């Protein structure tokens, strides 16, 4: 068997987690070697009672989180180092610097001078550029940052805490909270959130008189909690009390993102499922591909799919058991989709109507970065103005740089094609890439410099980051 168990037994208290992981890996290995397939379905009939499940998982939680935080600290510099002047739309400082750690005695210049084959054979690919695991990959499920959990509890009395695990990335690497809201229909109003997180408690007072009746109803549905895989009433939920569920805007907070994470529902088996970066809903009106595998061609399709399957790890059988909310296509789905299509990108005062920098407003560094973006760096091959997306899928073939390996229950191998996300307002949406593996824009530039073999100089990298912050 070629699988390795990526856990070191450090203390007696970790024995339960070790044994659980051993069983998972052995079962996977047995299935592979015996030619047997794992099931596409989650178990429907749970043999343990809820109290036993919760006690077992609460006991395992400290070691589960320690394992994940050890991984993050090995990969990244997690210190709080904000940029001096660069801020998000509502003023939260942007983190600066490349945070992915290099192998010993290696520099970015030396690494970028090597071929993908050489990096792969010498195992020099930075760990921070490998696929990032879910906080507990074998378990998976929706996980929310603490600041969102606390605000929802304060406003609604609804608890999104999981007893088995916590969100993993530090707050200073996440989007500002609550995020501002900009509407395509009322750009004259600027941020219409009034600095509040929009919930079922306040959506009406905030938007009555700004939205029309069907848009207001769409917003009501987007902030209404419905049953979900980890938050429901069954014995295999992950909330201590029976839960009303989650709302669309629990992840897409204020129509943007709070960086909540999950696992892609449309991939099997479990170890090949991707961690999901919650994308912003800003600018969905100009997008044409949706879903983690981009199999959905409209916001309407995606809205309906989320409630029917994505909320339940892509398993409609479990959805039926846990209380799937079937939306009515002609009214509810349409109303929700129309509201989402009103969510605009944040203002970018240095951009002209063509999406390019106004030379009278931009700095010299930003202008140089723009020239690189459309020239040497070739970013515009995928990210075309004015919204900086081509609405297509591209396969970066990152697996050229490393050998497949199991990382905390996640099989790091080929990711396949990924969507070209819009770069408008990108400074507001850390962390980056489809699975959160890039913590800063500096990381993103360094990643693509290596993957695309561009060979940018240090000054060119800084100029490119400056341009991205202006979008």
Report the strand count: 8
Assembly form of the protein: single chain
Straight-line N-to-C gap: 49 Å
Contiguous runs where pLDDT drops below 50 for at least 5 residues: 1-34
Q: How many strands, what sense, and barrel or not for the largest sheet?
A: 2 strands, antiparallel
Backbone CA Rg: 22 Å
Total helical segments = 14
Strand residues, percent: 5-15%
Spatial ordering of strands, largest sheet? 1-2
Shape: globular
Secondary-structure-based class equals mainly alpha
What's the average pLDDT?
Answer: 92
What are the secondary-structure elements, in order, as H or E? HHEEHHHHHHEEHHHHEEEEHH
Task: Domain count, please report it.
Answer: 3
What labels would you give this structure?
471 residues; mainly alpha; Cytochrome Bc1 Complex, Chain D, domain 2; 3 domains; two-stranded antiparallel sheet; two-stranded antiparallel ribbon; 8 strands; 32% helix; 5% strand; globular; disordered N terminus
Describe the structure.
The protein is mainly α and 471 residues long. It folds into three domains: 1-36; 96-130 and 349-470, Orthogonal Bundle (Cytochrome Bc1 Complex, Chain D, domain 2); 146-340, no CATH class. The protein contains 14 helices and eight strands. The strands form four sheets. It has a two-stranded antiparallel ribbon. Helix 7 packs across helix 11, helix 12 (364-374) crosses helix 14 (458-470) and helix 13 (441-451) packs across helix 14. The longest helix has 26 residues, at 50-75. The protein is globular and about 60 Å long. The termini are far apart. The relative contact order is 0.14.
